[in-house]
Q: What sequence folds into this?
């Protein structure tokens, strides 16, 4: 297995995920090499992240007007080709919570639980007006810690 | 040549286009059949339409706050497969101007001027506040008639 | 309700659909107007069509090597704006079966069963080697007629 | 300026790029936050990478049948929001060449040469038949070193 900078112990790392969304690979997400285009992985990451934040109550009214979490960086490692008509499980977890930002990790496995995609990315909490990073409220942090 | 409902005389129809954008087919726009995915045609149509309306001064300040042209329908006929690394010319013209809407026609040809894509779609001029169709100003119509 | 060329009696037309896929609107499918980009409708159409043809046994082995159904044209009417986080039902039906081609109709409704998208498009059965239209087998037609 | 793991000295790093493609931000690449969706960055990266490899003669006949460079990982840092109708320059360079793989770096700047996107990703040279990593030929390495 290829070593990935953001994963120390793969077995441990995988065991920490529980939230996931099912992903049905679309025909338009393949490319002429016959498998899923590498760009599509980030579409799946975003869909999973948004669903996760929704579940965590991040888009509930009240919170959203003051600050908004924005993607600061993203990365993906491609471990195994994915083909049209495969069903993926795309897992998401919060890996680390800072003052103004937090890290999200991603794991995509096929129906045989084989590793297809891993990834991570930092979200920064921006003030909706100034666009500058602001500390997350305790309430926000609590939501992410569940 | 296949007959298309919105084209009466193909030669005449083609001769009425002059504005175009160059389209460089991206790898991510192909699919596992090895050619450009059918969804991509509508990406090219939108890019060409937006450039055309920009050129016509449609996004100049002053105009945009009152009403906004929205896509009401779209259609595309696929005449010839398009492959990765091809260069297309995507032509756009205004075909018919009504009171609250206008029709845009699309033509995509390859480097040998062969017909690859034809299409059309209606734009409706909506009031920015109410979201209801409103008559286009004479100024808007003038811009479209050039 | 806007009149659409391929729908004679809307109530009758809607009643003829039964197969559908659920569509979860992705964040990346919206645009800066705040709603679903018009290109995304064709992504949903494709996903629904492919699932439909799969269910109909069209991608079962044996059949696929000889001929392949290709999109000849596509059209979509946008009846109602769709927003991020909405759930759509995207219905598909075969509307008409010819010798070498068939028509697929599309219907997208929101959770209140309101009409959001309607569409249609012709599929042509191409010989996998020559790339020329060939008659569909009785077996193919039977699959589409269910 | 935010620190990025793959950039030691930003000024030095920027000075090493020369190849770029112009990117015209498409309307369909924005999202409801009003700026370019984070997924779109990877579309631009791919387009720039493919053009770069083409220029380097990587898709010339003869070479392609034996081995093929595949994306092993990708990452992007978002330094500044990008908006519809902006023109980007997307720069690409080879950063490091190994035995069976090489690293590509990416830089996206706006018309004022402000840093918008930086990124990197490893390409692995796979044997076209076995799908296993194979050493790159001296010819391939020479192409990448220019």
A:
């Amino acid at each position: 297995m290829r070593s990935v900078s953001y994963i120390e112990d793969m077995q441990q790392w995988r065991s920490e995920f529980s939230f996931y969304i099912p992903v049905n690979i679309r025909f338009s997400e393949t490319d002429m090499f016959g498998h899923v285009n590498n760009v599509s992985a980030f579409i799946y990451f975003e869909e999973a992240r948004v669903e996760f934040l929704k579940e965590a109550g991040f888009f509930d009214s009240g919170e959203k007007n003051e600050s908004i979490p924005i993607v600061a960086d993203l990365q993906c490692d491609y471990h195994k080709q994915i083909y049209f008509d495969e069903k993926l499980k795309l897992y998401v977890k919060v890996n680390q919570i800072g003052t103004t930002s937090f890290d999200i990790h991603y794991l995509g496995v096929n129906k045989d639980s084989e590793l297809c995609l891993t990834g991570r990315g930092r979200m920064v909490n921006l003030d909706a007006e100034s666009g500058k990073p602001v500390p997350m409220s305790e309430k926000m942090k609590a939501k992410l810690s569940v």
